[in-house]
Amino acid sequence: EMIEYMRIINLVEQEHPILVDKYLMGVELEVDAVSDGEDILIPGIMEHLERAGVHSGDSISIFPAYIPDRIRDQIIDYTRRLAKAMKVIGLINIQFILYNEDLYVIEVNPRSSRTVPYISKVTGIPIVRLATRIMMGESLRDQEWGTGLYARYPAVYAIKAPVFSFEKLHEVDTSLGPEMKSTGEVLGLSTTYSEAMYKAILASGFHFPERGSGILLTVRDSDKPDLAPLALRLFEMGYELYGTGGTSNYLNKLGIPCSIARKVEEGKPDVLDMINQGHVRMLVNTESPNGHFSGFNGFRLRRRAIEQGIATITSLDTLVAVTECLEQGMSPDRLQPYEMSVFAEIVRETRHNRLPLNEMPMHNSMLKK
Question: DSSP string covering 57-103, please?
Answer without folding.
Answer: GGS-EEES----HHHHHHHHHHHHHHHHHTT-EEEEEEEEEEETTEE
